[in-house]
Design goal:
- This protein is an alpha/beta fold and 392 residues long.
- The chain folds into 2 domains: 283 residues, 3-Layer(bba) Sandwich (FAD/NAD(P)-binding domain), CATH 3.50.50; 83 residues, no CATH class.
- The protein is 28% helix and 21% strand.
- Strands 1, 2, 5, 6, 7, 8 and 16 form a 7-stranded mixed beta sheet that branches. A 3-stranded antiparallel beta sheet has the order 11-10-12, with helices on one face.
- A hairpin with a 2-residue loop joins strand 6 and strand 7.
- It is globular.
- About 5% of the residues have low confidence.
């Protein structure tokens, strides 16, 4: 097996989906490689099915473009919970301030729907395909060495978008990277059936605003406040450590299911997260590193906005310079591996900003193979024409 593409997108999570959509719509020949056999990453295979806010918590939508498109697609066949009526049905400012632009979606329908969209756009999706190493021509990546059922082969390319979540391509290409200082807490979410309903169990460290409360129809086994399952912390980039963390999480999940089942016999698991719930592992050290103190700061090279899913008020312009490093000129990144401080990382790692940076990275990859030299004004013009809000 051998392939060639204008753009290789590594990783089929939200950032990778967004990058592939943007690059394909811009006319690039795109190959998306994904090590699993389903798209969506943490959002679908990890069952973290909370589409966090597209707004600033003050009633103002700040994320549009592919970010909003994916939210709408995720609930095209109905929301599992938190249908954002005020935002999708022309609610007043007062109504929008009461409920953030957030929803909960079905992971299976969402994964199938985005796969259909990518295929319609002409993206070649290679499932079960792992990026094993890179081939370089000087500082440039000329090919990605991949492994799958066909064996080992090379995908030749002009530009690469690293959406692996762990900066795997950047690391293999010799780009400067950094590890998250505190590592990751233990979690393993699952869906369960009881009382005629299927519900999500957020078992372990959760991505929910601290103000979230249980609704009146929640049963005693739902989560109101979710904490890490154990003191265990793991980096997310060590094979044995990652396996140990998953095994420990599985054991605790099994205990949890059996305990509840003994009290409620019809309680059964429906599906469990099939990938590790890694939040922050390895990122690039880019041309600029953004910090969470830079709320409402103007960046001339902004490629989109994001709010803070944890609280109302903050709003950030994301600099283009956080998406690349001069060390590897034809490599750009998106998602939870952009160049940010540990404090900012918790803001930019979630679904909405992953879609924002994915759209920017995919658009840029369709324009150049020298990201440091790209005309940012032209990139911004293209993003703005695709409904991306660039400045606060």
């Amino acid at each position: 097996m051998s392939h060639r593409a204008d753009v290789v997108v590594a990783g089929g999570g939200i950032a990778g989906i967004s990058a592939a959509i943007a690059a394909a719509r811009s006319g690039a020949d795109v190959i998306l490689i994904e090590r699993e056999f389903c798209l969506g990453g943490m959002a679908t295979l990890g069952l973290v099915t909370i589409f966090l806010p597209l707004d600033d918590g003050r009633g103002n939508q700040v994320i549009f473009g592919i970010g909003e498109e994916l939210l709408r697609l995720s609930i095209e066949h109905g929301a599992e919970a938190n249908y954002p009526k005020a935002w999708l049905e022309g609610g007043s400012l007062e109504e929008r301030m009461k409920a953030r632009f957030i929803t909960q979606f079905n992971p299976h329908l969402f994964a199938l729907r985005v796969e259909k969209l990518l295929l319609e756009l002409g993206v070649k999706v290679l499932y079960g395909t792992l990026a094993a190493s890179v081939i370089k021509d000087g500082p440039l990546i000329s090919g990605i060495v991949v492994e799958n059922k066909s064996g080992r082969s090379v995908i030749a390319c002009e530009a690469v978008v690293d959406c692996t979540g762990d900066a795997d391509i950047a690391h293999m290409a010799g780009a400067p990277t950094a590890l998250h200082e505190k590592g990751n807490g233990l979690a393993s979410w699952y869906y369960y059936y009881t009382g005629g309903k299927v519900k999500l169990k957020m078992f372990g460290l959760a991505d929910l605003p601290s103000s979230s409360e249980a609704s009146e129809d929640d049963d005693p086994y739902d989560n109101v406040k979710v904490v890490s399952l154990a003191p265990t912390r793991f980096s997310g980039v060590d094979g044995e450590e990652l396996s140990s963390a998953v095994i420990e999480a599985h054991g605790k999940m099994y205990e949890d299911i059996l305990k509840i089942k003994s009290e409620q016999p019809d309680y059964v698991p429906v599906t469990i997260s099939t990938i590790p719930l890694v939040r922050m592992s390895r990122r690039i050290v880019g041309a600029y590193t953004q910090d969470d103190t830079e709320s409402h700061v103007f960046f001339e090279d902004s490629i989109g906005l994001t709010g803070d899913w944890r609280k109302a008020g903050p709003c950030y312009e994301i600099p283009y310079r956080t998406l690349y490093t001069p060390a590897v000129p034809n490599l750009i990144v998106a998602g939870r591996i952009i160049s940010v401080t540990d404090d900012m990382w918790d803001i930019t790692r979630v679904i909405p900003p992953c879609a924002v940076t994915g759209q920017a990275a995919g658009t840029a990859a369709s324009m150049t193979k020298d990201f440091p030299a790209l005309d940012v004004a032209e990139l911004q013009q293209r993003l703005a024409s695709n409904n991306v809000k660039l400045h606060i």
